[in-house]
């Protein structure tokens, strides 16, 4: 039987071939976030810079018997300042990734998207889950399930391109991208099917590059070849999608959590479209998912070093 986490272990092994990724950990002021950063450092995936109130960080480390003696600490007064200081380290080129600590995601992202002092690029910022689903042979990318609530057609162009670039960084040079809806035919009364058709035509015209797109596709015929054959869908994507683009955040969030809690999947999370990858983890994440999130960020950062113009548009 295949090791349940074999897909994540491949990503972690690939990342270990390179130096640990310099990473600003924003406000690691509870056991979960501090331990997560230290575990990733122990696995040589990241080289963390701890950004937050120094006394609180040291108190958490002492209470939880965590050794932080080898790590730099940037002292800040509160969580908002922690987010701003972490972003500043990235702007100055002192780190190549951000990692969310115990502050709210909104606080961190508010600092990231500030026009003058943040980490904006020409791309829309979006979130990707890299799912390790036991029933599937390859990692499954789902986007966007955490940042863009009701993305527009133009937003989805960026969401798709970010996901394709992520797939490239993970070693998939021609990812199959399914644009999801509730059905697999264009229906004018269902706007997401019309958007899916438009996005696929945009890919045909070179407005989205690097992937093979099809849509609209329902979830079953996007990931199951038998379902696609029953519906008589002739497509290089149907039944074998590597990337699922969801209609909106609610659909994506429910899909990812359904896979996690009902199908035994793990979810590594990363935010793309900024100057550096941003590692988002949850207190509910398993250790392997946390490590995989760091490994994904490392592979993305390496791809950006090799092809900076392509990734930062």
List its salient traits.
single chain; 313 residues; alpha/beta; 12 helices
Question: Mind explaining what this structure looks like?
Answer:
The protein is of the alpha/beta class. It is 43% helix and 17% strand. It has helices at residues 6-15, 31-42, 54-63, 79-91, 105-113, 153-169, 191-204, 219-223, 225-230, 249-262, 287-306, 308-311; strands spanning 21-26, 46-52, 73-75, 97-100, 126-132, 140-143, 176-180, 212-217, 243-245, 266-272, 278-279. Helix 7 links the parallel strand 7 (176-180) and strand 8. Helix 1 (6-15) packs across helix 11 (287-306). Residues 309-313 have low confidence and may be disordered.
Query: What is the CA-atom radius of gyration, in angstroms?
Result: 19 Å
Shape: globular
Query: Could you say which structural class the secondary elements and strand pairing correspond to?
Result: alpha/beta
* Oligomerization state: single chain
Unreliable runs = 309-313
The profile of the biggest β sheet is: 11 strands, mixed
Task: Tell me the fraction of residues in β-strands, as a range.
Answer: 15-25%
Q: Quick check: average pLDDT?
A: 93
What is the element string, with H for helices and E for strands? HEHEHEHEHEEHEHEHHEHEEHH
Structure summary, number of beta strands: 11
Measured distance between first and last alpha carbons:
42 Å
Number of helices: 12
Q: Enumerate the strands of the largest sheet in spatial order, edge to edge or round the barrel.
A: 3-2-1-4-11-10-5-6-9-7-8
Q: State the helical fraction.
A: 40-55%
């Amino acid at each position: 039987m295949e090791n349940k986490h074999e897909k994540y272990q491949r990503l972690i092994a690939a990342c270990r071939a390179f130096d640990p990724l310099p990473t600003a950990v924003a406000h690691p002021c509870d056991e979960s976030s501090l331990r997560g950063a230290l575990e990733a450092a122990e696995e040589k995936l990241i080289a963390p810079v701890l950004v937050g109130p120094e006394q609180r960080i040291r108190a958490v480390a002492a209470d939880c018997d965590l050794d932080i003696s080898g790590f730099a600490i940037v002292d800040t007064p509160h969580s908002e300042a922690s987010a701003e200081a972490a972003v500043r380290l990235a702007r100055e080129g002192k780190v190549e990734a951000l990692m969310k600590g115990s502050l709210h995601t909104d606080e961190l992202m508010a600092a990231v998207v500030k026009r003058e002092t943040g980490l904006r690029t020409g791309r829309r910022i979006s979130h990707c889950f890299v799912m390790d689903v036991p029933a599937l042979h390859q990692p499954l990318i789902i986007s966007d399930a955490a940042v863009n609530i009701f993305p527009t057609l133009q937003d989805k162009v960026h969401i798709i391109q970010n996901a394709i670039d992520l797939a490239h960084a993970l070693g998939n040079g021609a990812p199959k991208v399914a644009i999801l809806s509730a059905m697999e035919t264009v229906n004018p009364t269902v706007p997401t099917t019309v958007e899916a058709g438009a996005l696929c035509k945009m890919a045909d015209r070179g407005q989205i590059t690097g992937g093979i797109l099809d849509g609209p596709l329902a979830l079953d015929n996007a990931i199951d070849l038998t379902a696609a054959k029953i519906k008589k869908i002739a497509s290089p994507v149907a039944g074998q999608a590597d990337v699922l683009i969801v209609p909106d955040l609610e659909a994506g969030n429910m899909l990812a959590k359904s896979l996690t809690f009902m199908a035994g999947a793990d979810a590594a999370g990363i935010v793309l479209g900024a100057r550096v990858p941003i590692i988002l983890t949850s207190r509910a994440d398993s250790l392997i998912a946390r490590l995989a999130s760091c490994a994904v960020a490392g592979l993305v950062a390496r791809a950006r070093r090799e092809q900076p113009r392509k990734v930062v548009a």
